[in-house]
Amino acid sequence: MYKIKTMNKISNEGLKLFGDLYEVDDKFEDEDAIIVRSAKLHDYDPPHNLKAIARAGAGVNNIPVDACSDKGIVVFNTPGANANAVKELVLCGLFLSSRKVVEGIEWAKTIEDDDFGKAVEAGKKQFVGPEIDGKTLGVIGLGAIGVAVANAAIKLGMHVVGYDPYISVKAAWGLSKWVKHATTPEEVYREADYLTIHVPANEETKNMINKKTIALMKRDVRILNFARDALVNTEDMITALKKEQVAKYVTDFGNKDLVNTPNVIVMPHLGASTPESEENCARMAVTELKDFLENGNIQNSVNMPTVVEARATNYRVCIIHKNIPNMLAVFANAFAKKGMNIENMVNKARGDIAYTIIDTNDLSEDITKVIEKHDGVIRARVIAKAVF
Ligand SMILES: NC(=O)C1=CN([C@@H]2O[C@H](COP(=O)(O)OP(=O)(O)OC[C@H]3O[C@@H](n4cnc5c(N)ncnc54)[C@H](O)[C@@H]3O)[C@@H](O)[C@H]2O)C=CC1
Ligand SMILES: O=C(O)C(=O)COP(=O)(O)O
């Protein structure tokens, strides 16, 4: 039985795919794998048995990815599985940033006049806001969400200028030909009437929206942040709003200072909170974990290479190791000494780390111990045919 620990509420539509070989609980202390959404794992002390963590979602900044790599724990995410949900909320945010709908609704609740209609007609002039048609949307980060937002904005009649120095081939294929490609973020900042950011939070992107970058933007720019709080410097944003450099800030990642600042709309991290997205993410995360635990296959990992091999033998030995010379010779030698014949072997590297799968019909019980003794080997595991 594999033990799966849930660190957040995960859609049952996904969890039920685990099947009979699995127990799922939020209380295990010796789990084989974790499935998580936004719960922070930086202070979590992983049990020795933990082999994998699946983030049912996109952002992995709640997971200590480097420390996991050092321990041979594979970290997965579910690319694109919640992108449509986020795109729809970003479009909602785009309209809310423009038309004073939120302010108008709040004001309507305060009307005490018996003639409600008359009060509305007299008061509505306070809530005039511009149309988005014909305006320019700047998109920083053209991944699953950025591309979906850019394409939708084109269909809504906007001009779109996008920036992503690391755009994937898949994303580039999906991007509307009408999106202007910027070669620097500054170009986007200068041209945008509306700016939306869809990049991961990391050292490079931290504080990317700050007083210097805001100073490059048009006066009255409207900024949307459905990516992460760390991308925007809160103090600089509040100052820019007060000086009316920024007309509106709409974010899924608020804090106590922002929530009470005029012209800020804070949503409580609702981007991926749709049944469709929760199911998509859970299904994808469960499928990834099952294929790794049962077959050693790795797909959609953020810290290990992609390795997917069909099973054809009685045993599979899976080795996570450093990407250094001589490792394959070490494994082949260990197999030879134990009289184990290699039927199939695949090795892939990603940065400092590498992963090797060796398929065999023979098994010497202590092969993993022998392999793990060698410098550079992080973790070895045998998966028997009985499991699949
Ligand atoms: N509000 C919410 O509930 C959600 C928020 N998110 C956030 O949105 C982010 C993006 O999600 P996806 O589009 O699914 O991820 P993705 O990985 O498909 O796209 C991210 C894109 O950012 C680009 N990028 C990285 N560094 C960049 C830089 N310095 N400048 C410009 N582009 C850069 C990458 O090349 C990639 O194309 C996630 O990392 C997460 O933080 C994701 C899902 C839900
Ligand atoms: O996928 C992401 O990066 C998200 O921010 C979604 O977070 P959630 O799964 O809704 O807690």
Automatic annotation (TrEMBL):
Domain named ACT: residues: 316-385
Database matches in Pfam families: 2-Hacid_dh (PF00389), 2-Hacid_dh_C (PF02826)
Keyword Secreted: no
The organism's place on the tree of life at top rank: Bacteria
Stretches assigned to coiled coil: none
Key words of the record: NAD, Oxidoreductase
Pathway: Amino-acid biosynthesis; L-serine biosynthesis; L-serine from 3-phospho-D-glycerate: step 1/3
GO molecular function: NAD binding; phosphoglycerate dehydrogenase activity
Cited CDD domains: ACT_3PGDH, PGDH_like_3
E.C. code: 1.1.1.399, 1.1.1.95
SUPFAM superfamilies: ACT-like, Formate/glycerate dehydrogenase catalytic domain-like, NAD(P)-binding Rossmann-fold domains
Annotated catalysed reactions: (2R)-3-phosphoglycerate + NAD(+) = 3-phosphooxypyruvate + NADH + H(+); (R)-2-hydroxyglutarate + NAD(+) = 2-oxoglutarate + NADH + H(+)
UniProt function note: Catalyzes the reversible oxidation of 3-phospho-D-glycerate to 3-phosphonooxypyruvate, the first step of the phosphorylated L-serine biosynthesis pathway. Also catalyzes the reversible oxidation of 2-hydroxyglutarate to 2-oxoglutarate.
Family: Belongs to the D-isomer specific 2-hydroxyacid dehydrogenase family.
Name of the protein in question: D-3-phosphoglycerate dehydrogenase
